Each structure stands twice: as C-alpha cells, then as structure tokens.
Amino acid sequence: MSEKDANPSAKDALVGGSLFGRWEKLRGREGTVVGITAILVAVFPYLFARAPVVSGILQGYQSLATLILIWGIFAIGFDLLLGYTGLLSFGHAAFWGGAAYAAGIVAKNVSGDPIVMVVSGTLFAVLLAWVLGFLSLRRGGIYFSILTLAFAQMFYYMAASPLAFLTNGENGLTGVEVGSFLGVIHLESDIPSVGGMLLGTWLYAFVGVFFVGAVAVAYRILNSPYGMVFRAIRENEQRAEFVGLNVWRYKLMAFIISGAFAGIAGSLFTIHGAYVPLQSLFWTESGDIVVMTVLGGAGSMFGPVLGVGLYLYIENIVSTIQALTIPFTDIVLIRDFGFYWHLLLGLVFVVVVWVVPDGLWGILNRLRELAVEFGSKAAERLRSRSKGGGR
Amino acid sequence: MSLLSDVLVILLNGLQQGAIYVLLAVGLSIILGTLKFVNFAHGALYLIGTYAGLFVALNVPLSNGKLAEWGFSSFGLDIGFFAALIFVPLFVFGVGLLMERYLARAFYDRPDTDQILVTFGLAIVVQELFRVLFGSNSLPFEQPERILSFGSFAGLPVSGPVALPIVGNFPQWRLWVIGITAVLVALVYLLVEYTDFGLVVRAGTRDAEMVRLLGIKITRPYIVVFGIGAALAGVAGVVGGPLNVVNPTIGTNILVPAFLTVVIGGVGSIAGAVVGGIVFGLTTAALVAFAPAWSQVGLYAIAAIVLLTRPQGLLGDEEVTP
C-alpha cells in the first residue's frame, strides 16, 4: 500500500479523477481502513450465520464468527513479528495459552469481570514476552525459532504437571465463570433488535471492539516511523544497525507487542469458551498460527486474518462435509471429504510456501493490480477514441 | 537396591533414552551442518520409520482409519525384526533422496524461514496421511523376542531381562538399542571423518563454492548426506517404536527434543549430537526417578541454559552467525 502512496502523481495520471481514482487515494488512509474494518466486523456474523442465501451456502454459525475474530487478533499480532520484522517465532502458544490460563485463573480466584480477565491475561502475556524475548532474541535465524519453541514447550510441560494445582493439568482449566460486562450485560445473551440481527451476541460485539482496536493499533504502528524500523530490520538487519538504529531494542519491542496481541486474543479465548484446554500451550498451537498467517499472507495487514478465516472454516465447517459432490448434482467426487481436512490444509500450505510466499492476500493483490491496469488501459483507449472522434 | 545400582539403572535408562535422540540428532545435525537445510520434517521421517518397521517386522490388526475401511484387516509382512532393521533404513534412505531432490534442493537458496515453513508443512502432510490411513489410535508394536531366527537356528534373544553385575535384572532390549545406536553412529563418524566421500562433504561444509570450482560435483554427496540422515531417523523409528507408543503424532512430538539435542550439542558436530543426546537422556532419566512431575520440564530448562551460556552448543566450535 505504502509503495503506491509514494508516487500518487503517476497513479493520478493513470486513473485520473474518476471515482476509482478517488478510492485509490482513500484506501490507504487510517480512517478508511478502520472504518471499513468496523463495517465488515459488523456485517460479518449476519452474512456468515444468518443472512438468507449466503449463510445457507457458507453454513456458518455465530460462535465460529467470534472465534475467527479472536484468532484474527492473534494473527495480526503474530504477523507484526513474522511478516514485518522477519522473526519466525514457534513459541507464541506460550503467550496465547499463558494469557488464556492467566485470565481463567483470575476469573476463578479473583474476579470474573471480562475486562479484568482481558487486562490480567494481557499483562501476563506482556511480562512473559518480555522475559522470553529478552532470552530468545540473543540468537537470530533458526536458533530464534528453536529457542522460542523450547521455552514454550517448557511452559506446556510446567502447566501439565508441576503447576497442575493451578492449571488442573491434563484436563484443562474447567469451571471458569465469566461474569457480566460492567455488571449488567451477560456476554452470552443476544443483543436486542437490529444490533442482534447483525452482531448476534454481546460476546461478539465485545470481541469485535477489540478486533477493530487491534487493527487500528497495528495499522498505526506499521505506518509510523517505528513500524518502518521493523521493516528495515526485516530487509537488512545489519544495515539497520549501521545507520544507528538499536536493532535489539526494536526487535524486543516487536516481540512484546506481538505477545500483547496474542495475550488479548488468548484472554478472549477463555471468555469465549469458559475453558482452557492444555493443548492451547502445545507447540502445534504455535504451528497453527504460523500456518494461518503464512497461508493468508505474511507481511500484509489483513492477509493473516484471511488465513485465520480460511483455516478455521476448513477446520470447523469443511471437516463436517460428508461427501464432496459436483455442485448441483449428486455425483460424488470424494467420499468422507471432511475427514481429509487437515491433510488438505497441509498440502495447500506447502504449495503456498513454495509457490506464492506472499499468500492468498498476495494473490488477491496481484489480481487487483491486474484489474487496475486493465481498467486504466481501457479508459485510455476510450479517451483516445473519443479524441479521434473529435478530430 | 543400593544407591550404586540405582544410579547405574538411571545411567542405563538415560543412555537408552538418549540413544533415540542421538540417532535423530546426528541425522539432523549433518543435514543442517552440511547442507545448511533446516528440516522440520525430520520427525516425519521417524514416523515413517516406525510404521515401516511395524509393517516389516510384525502383522498388526487394523481397526481404524481408511485402510481398515478399504478392507485391509491387518497390516504387515511379519518377517521379523532383523529384516526391519535392514529394510527400513534402506527405504527411508530412499525417501530422503526423493525429499532432497524434489523438495530441499528447491529451497537451498531461499531464507531459513522458508525452509522451516515448507518442511513444517510437509510434516503436517505426512502426519495427516498416516492419520487418514491408520487412524489416530495407537498401534501395538511389541518388542521382538528374538532376532535372526532362521529355520532351526533359534536366533539371539533380545527381549526379557538380563542379569547385569550390580544392577541386577535389566530389560535386554534397552541394551540392544544402546548398542545399535553406538555402532551406527560410529559408522557415520568414520564415513565422514576418514573416507574420500567424507572429505568432500566436510569441504563442502566449509566452502561449497570452492569445492565446485575444484571440479567436484557437490550435489551427489549432498543427496547422500540427506539420505543418511533420513536413514538414521528411520532406524530411530524402528528401534524406538517398541519403547514408545506408535501413533501419527509421534513425529511432531519427537521433533522438538531432537532439534534441541542438535542445538545444544553444536550444529554439524556428530560428537556434539551424541553428547547432547546423552545429556538429555540422563537428565530425563534422573528426573523421572527423583522428580517425575518435572521430568519433561528439565529437558527444556537445560536446553535454555546451555543456549544462553554457550550459544554455539556444547561442542560447537564454529563462530555463530546470528
């Protein structure tokens, strides 16, 4: 996006002052991005779970919509680290699961207020990210990945047995009771009237606010000089060091910010499910967020969210498909199609890494550019033809 | 039970536990050190080795998964454990060659993160393939009674307890695991250190371009190194199978300790991988004996401490480039 904004004059010459051109100018602005995100978040559960024809095809449901937003926050934070700073962490389950446990334990022992849960979970994740970042960032490249992996696994096994008195060990943290928001609104209940038709539950609205907030914050960071430094580090760490930037500090901050996003998401996950599975700390959970982010497109703002949507959709909806048929017929292509969901996802992931490293978002972007090019060429042809007619 | 025998039992158990890590870590380490390729699918090779071992050595009934649905009620050739020890490494060696030729080679010039991602994806694919075919439940992999039994020759007994001095009775199979590991690792060491092939490999580790300029085709040693690493993972699967559960997740579960073994031992160093594996094995065995709740945590704590105090690993001498 930013590359395009860099030379608006060239863009203007191409698309002129048309409606499309005006949109091209607007689409990079923070207000537009956050506004559109808010609108999409507002209509998403309606389209996904309740709209007449669309939801019938999609087969979505309300709680999955909520889950997609929660993982979406996680993925946006993860992408700050992987896509923009170029650090591949295989230990983010520690922040996601750690925050989930922290929020759950606070809810059980102190207060079940959702705000308190999110704040305590996030604080825990930030502190943990600080310590783990401080230790893991001493090494770069694959060693960073392996160190984060090792630390996260350590927490998994700690939660599994030595700390079982806190975490309830293998069974996961059960019996988390989420209180009402501000003492009056039960998050599980439906929103009345139009709001209810669009958003569904209060829980979705609660998560949605955090999601839009996460997008706004991430967008602000990435388009600030601070975020520019992240990208500089990704492109060439040594050069960034040479121009006098304190690379270590920026990397640590990127790690902590990314941990904070994971913490918010993890706390929301506990509120959403009122339960914390031990699995949420296991390294395959870190692997899942890696897969989602890369599938959607690391290094883009919304690509990872797209990846989250796709992953969770395949995991929860496609996996229930009994038989894959040719549309509108009864000819069965693959029986027990849903059974193969994870295999399918793995294959898609390998292909994406191999062929299109910028993910689905990259594909969409290229299509868009193609359309813009085609559109401007067509407009030019039109213009020259009308000129010719005048002569 | 005296204290001495307790300690010796822990040592032996630790060595056996470490032996599996060593087999995996030596393979990972030579691939990482020579080819500079990060293989997150090494656990998948272990998984393939275990199931292939099960297939060759025994004949187990299938109740779950697609194979059972397609009408295969049992699975296996049932031609004995020794055959598995011969054929499985060969098979996984072949798998390794294919993997190097068609996957790894395309990624040598791409960033580390891409290598991690694509092999991680491959690990998922292999794991899910096995889950689809065999179901996610555990299959029984019985310890072999005897190996090398042909016709009238009864073969060598390998299971059951054996009386050792001081220690008393100790499961014999565990000693075999230690022995097989020691022999194989020694062979790989000799191959890399004392043959012309090893010379080319070591030269390639230092400066691949120079080796190419000297007119040596480096791709062939590379593919063989990858194959040897894979074969070792296959052996680990065969000998480790009867000691652990056998299900599709074993590959991803063993990958993390295996990688840590490489890293704490020092990348590219065979001796380092052995030391790392033994340290891990002994730690785990000691913690299992004295503080079972912490048995898994200890491994990661040690890894973290070693990496933070000696980033190049215990026996790594290479300057670490971050």
UniProtKB/TrEMBL annotation, chain A:
Highest taxon in the source lineage: Archaea
GO CC term (a single one): plasma membrane
Annotated TM spans: 31-49, 61-82, 114-135, 142-159, 202-222, 252-277, 289-314, 339-357
Key words, A-Z: Cell membrane, Membrane, Transmembrane, Transmembrane helix
UniProt cross-references to InterPro entries, sorted A to Z: ABC_transp_permease, LivM-like
Main location group: membrane
A molecular-function term among this protein's GO annotations: branched-chain amino acid transmembrane transporter activity
Subcellular location: Cell membrane
Protein name: Branched-chain amino acid ABC transporter permease
Species, as recorded: Haloferax marisrubri
UniProtKB/TrEMBL annotation, chain B:
Lineage: superkingdom: Archaea
UniProt-recorded name of the protein: Branched-chain amino acid ABC transporter permease
Compartments where found: Cell membrane
GO biological process, one term: amino acid transport
The UniProt record lists the keyword Cell membrane: yes
Lineage: Archaea, Methanobacteriati, Methanobacteriota, Stenosarchaea group, Halobacteria
Topological type in the membrane: Multi-pass membrane protein
Organism annotation: Haloferax marisrubri
Main localization category: membrane
Residues spanning the membrane: 7-32, 44-63, 75-96, 146-167, 173-192, 222-243, 255-280, 287-308
InterPro entries per the UniProt record, alphabetical: ABC_transp_permease, BCAA_transport_permease
Keywords from the UniProt entry: Amino-acid transport, Cell membrane, Membrane, Transmembrane, Transmembrane helix, Transport
GO MF, one example: transmembrane transporter activity
UniProt GO cellular component terms: plasma membrane
Matches recorded under CDD domains: TM_PBP1_LivH_like
